[in-house]
Amino acid sequence: MIRLGRLPRLRNAYLRRGILVWWAIRFTAAFTGMVFLNTRATLGLLVMVAVGVVLYTRRRWEDILLGNLGIPLREAVAWALPLPMVAEALIPSPLLEAEGAGGFAPILVSGPGMGGGMRGGAELERPQPGTAVLEVDGLGKSYWRTTVLKSASFRAVAGEITALMGRNGSGKTTMLRISVGRVGAGYGRIFWRGDFVERPRLFRMAREGLFFSAQESALTSHFTVGDHLDAVVRTFGGGDRMEEVVARMRLAEFLGRRPHQISGGERQRASLAMALLRRPVCLLMDEPFSGVAPRDRPLIAAGLRGLRDAGCAVVVSGHDVEELFDVADQVMWVVAGTTHWLGSPSEAAAHPQFRREYLGPRGKAG
User: Fold this and answer.
1) What pLDDT, in 10s, does the model give residues 106-116?
2) Of 120, 140, 137, whose CA–CA distance to 3 is shortest?
């Protein structure tokens, strides 16, 4: 548990969360007569704490933040579990805590290797331009009787931006989520940096250069924009680029705000700032232009191009034709549970079926 231990704000959030859930359960137990807990009851409560932390983390999309930092969710849960036992020794009664000042003060853990940040580590090996960094082949996925994907494939190629285009519900998001292990596939194969991956996991792939941004962005509502950027710098380095990236994405006035206090376009810009600091070898970004104000779109497009020009393999999804055609090098059409490679945006715009069934008579390349 080294990575989370060196991220004080994340670490303390989970420590406080474990204490809060533990004392909520104990406070309830005090009024139901179960004051004295035996070993079995204590273990049962710890399991309840763990489940509560997992559900809370996934509901707030914190597992995406942890994954992008290379931290498995079980590590965050492990930080939340041991501390309540220490809290019981320090605070003898839940009633005493309830009558106190209210709330839980941050609890700092010190020890060897827990101070400061994880500064960079070894530089990622950059793939040669034109190399397939991520290959997804023949994916199939069904939810009950609804088939979302039948035989869907795509490739993330170093130095290129690939756009997955299709109507809402066509399976674009499902493909990306399967690629990073957030959803299990019914069948299909995934190759990451040339190796077959039987069970994709974002935190493992992130340590080797993957960055994933969901449709809601790569942020979590529990931390400020500045906290997110600081976590990336502490984990992977890049502090010398912080000022440049913040200025490039025009985030200076938003660093102290949480994601729910800024617009969708500003959240996408902050997600790209995290990626620019990370310098991944592959970026998967779901719907970066969806619901975004026109003034934010050029900044998002510039961020995507900057990553591509640095050799990153970029895959974006969406149905914003003009914006995607403007940034894409290759276009994949996602339709009827399958994918069709259409080539460059100009070639896609000239494809008769794509134009007829998706673009419409006024569709054109940007």
Assistant:
1) 323 333 232 33
2) 120
